[in-house]
């Protein structure tokens, strides 16, 4: 009888320790995620970055105009820097696509063309930012 009671108490103790571990692990993961990953929210588009910068630094309207002009100048310089590489990237992209097309059936090729069309549209949209 005492042996059964001792076993039940031991099983209960193991279960309590296990549940506490799960709870503490979950809370710790949640807090760590908020603390570390939550701080790493980076705005995606240029407008979002400017908005976040304006808010965080409490820029005046005149400062916003000046920062916008600086950001536009930086963006145009970066595009000019990347322009020579764009044609090379496009050539590599087309060569890769041609190699993929060679592997595909006619039916797959039609779907691949639709896929690459959507991909190119998205790329153009992203470049416009």
Folded structure, characterized:
The protein is mostly helical and 129 residues long. The chain folds into two domains: 1-41; 43-129, no CATH class. The chain has helices at 2-37, 46-57, 61-103, 106-127. The longest helix is centred in the middle third of the chain and has 43 residues, at 61-103. The chain is flat.
Q: Note poorly predicted spans.
A: none
Question: How many independent structural domains?
Answer: 2
- Ends: how far apart? 76 Å
The helix content is over 70%
Describe the main β-sheet briefly: none
| Contiguous helical run count | 4
Mean pLDDT: 84
Architecture blueprint of SSEs:
Blueprint: H1 2-37, H2 46-57, H3 61-103, H4 106-127
What are the main properties of this structure?
2 domains, 4 helices, mainly alpha, 129 residues
Describe the structure concisely for a colleague.
This protein has 129 residues and is an all-alpha fold.
């Amino acid at each position: 009888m005492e042996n059964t009671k001792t076993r039940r108490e031991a099983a209960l103790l193991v279960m309590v320790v296990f549940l506490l571990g799960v709870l503490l692990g979950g809370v710790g993961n949640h807090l760590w995620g908020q603390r570390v990953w939550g701080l790493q929210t980076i705005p995606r588009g240029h407008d979002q970055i400017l908005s976040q910068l304006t808010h965080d630094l409490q820029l005046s309207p005149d400062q916003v105009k000046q920062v916008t002009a600086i950001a536009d100048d930086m963006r145009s310089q970066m595009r000019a820097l990347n322009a020579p590489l764009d044609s090379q990237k496009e050539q590599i992209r087309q060569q890769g696509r041609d190699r993929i097309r060679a592997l595909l059936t006619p039916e797959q090729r039609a779907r691949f063309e639709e896929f690459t069309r959507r991909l190119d549209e998205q790329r153009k949209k992203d470049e416009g930012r």
